[in-house]
Amino acid sequence: MGNKLLLAFALMLVIEGLLPFVAPAAWRETFLRLAQMADGQIRFIGLTSMLIGVLLLFAFS
C-alpha cells in the first residue's frame, strides 16, 4: 500500500505541475483570484475537491 500511495502522490504532483508549466500566465491569474476569495469559498472548493476524489477512489477501486 505504501508504494501505491507514493505513486498517487507523484501523479498528483505531475498533474498539479502541468498548468504552471504549460500556461504560467493563466495559472498566475487563477492563483490571484483564489487569493482574493473568502475563507469559506476556499474551504468549499477544497471540500468539493476532496469529495470528488473520494468518489473517484470508490468508483475505480
Topology:
Elements lengths: L1 H21 L1 H12 L3 H22 L1
Keywords: Membrane, Transmembrane, Transmembrane helix
Protein name: DUF2065 family protein
Brief rundown of the structure:
This protein is an all-alpha fold and 61 residues long. The protein contains three helices and no strands.
Range of strand content: under 5%
Shape: flat
The helix content is over 70%
| Terminal Cα span | 13 Å
Given the structure, what is the number of helices? 3
Q: What value does the average pLDDT take?
A: 93
What's the helix-strand series?
HHH
Low-confidence stretches: none
Spatial extent as radius of gyration: 14 Å
Count every beta strand, where a strand is a DSSP E run of 2 or more residues: 0
Query: What structural category do the secondary elements indicate?
Result: mainly alpha
**Please, how many domains?**
1
The profile of the biggest β sheet is:
none
Mind explaining what this structure looks like?
The chain is mostly helical and 61 residues long. The chain has one domain. 90% of the residues lie in helices and 0% in strands. It has three helices and no strands. α1 crosses α2. It is flat, with a radius of gyration of 14 Å. The mean pLDDT is 93. Pfam families: DUF2065. InterPro entries: DUF2065. It comes from Aromatoleum diolicum. Keywords: Membrane, Transmembrane, Transmembrane helix. This is DUF2065 family protein.
